[in-house]
Predict the structure.
Amino acid sequence: MKNALFAVMCAAAGTAFAQNDQVVVLEGARLIDGTGNAPRENSVVIVRGDRITDVGTKGKLTYPKGARVVDVRGRTIMPGIINAHGHVGLVAEGKNRADAYTRENVQAQLLQYEQYGVTSVLALGLNRDLGFDIRDEQRRGGIPGASLFLAGRGIGVPDAAPPVPVAPDQVYRPQTPEEAVAEVRETAKHHPDMLKLWVDDVYGKFPKMPPAIYQAAIAEAHRNKIRVAAHVFYLADAKALISSGVDALAHSIRDQAVDDELIKLMKSKGTFYVSTFTVDESAFVFAEDPSLSQDPFLVQAVGPELVQQWQSAEYKNKVANDPNTPKIKAALATGMKNLKALQDAGVRIAFGTDSGAQPVRIPGFGEHRELELMVRAGLTPTQALAAASRGSAAMLGVSDRGTLEKGKRADFLVLAANPLEDIRNTRQLVSIWHGGREVQPRARTVATK
């Protein structure tokens, strides 16, 4: 049954994938272009193939002959969401499994991301080499779904993070700087879009990565023109990593408030910061907020077995009695304050969720929830949306997406309501346009909380 459903999904997506040479004019919407400029009312967006060929105001642009004109009056158009910290192929049938990284599973998850408005995703580590085959085939035009960027296997250390079951060919665990250098060189042969390092101890459960190893890995990655993102928690580790040249912090700093020293380091080095609030919130929210399990926007992204698990007394008791739950809540609160401080200080903010890393981190749903949490942390909707588009594109080093301008990829969302008035309106998906293809959303319902 699952294989049949996947085949139907791919067939439907593939039809849209093939219809990519038309000229389409979308007229009348409010346009949030991702540049930081004020929204353009009564806009016109002209799309030919996979590109935006012009942007303007209705009545001031000439439409190409024979173009299909789409009336989007009363709608809002915003850039497609770019998730600069997600995962694929780690969860199957509601569980983390070492055998989950299959072509079928990865492609199904890329489709799910896309159907929730995530038009690009960086799978930040724990990828089998199969992932590069999928990425490269997709870039040649063969696979639908969110555009896949890949960080390869990534580097941890023995008996340490990441603490999920994976196959032996999904993560490197060097014991020496020399081994780390060799593994970066092996990764470089695949031309990854980023390199991932796991540095912290996950609430004291594991040994940290020694500085000599991450310094060697960062230096070798940069020699191969590969950017590096690190899994972090502690302020001291963040400072040491930035001083060693890391390009992005892939999680919030959550042990204490950020200080002027860190801010100066990040601004001088141009380091990106990705908050991933849903990592912490997902550890307890489904047990504590029953309404989420009834939210169609979430339910359509997960199987019924997972929803039933969250609703069970056993699961709720497990979360309530976990000694780390209070620590995680405190970490989330600290992380939210730190994001606001870094945004106000002018640090480069990108966007990510760690979706797909665990069953509670839901591809598609998690990205809209993250936007909501960023606004709760004190960012304006404009700032949160900019992080999820222009900010993530800059972190990935890609200039063809992230804003809706002439010559950029036609990656955008058509919404029934204005997310600048209520960030949860990103969930009111009318249609998704990815590389000029119109994709129907899987879920359209606004969450109640």
In short: Confidence is low (pLDDT under 50) at residues 1-9, 11-18. The radius of gyration is 21 Å. The longest strand covers residues 51-57.
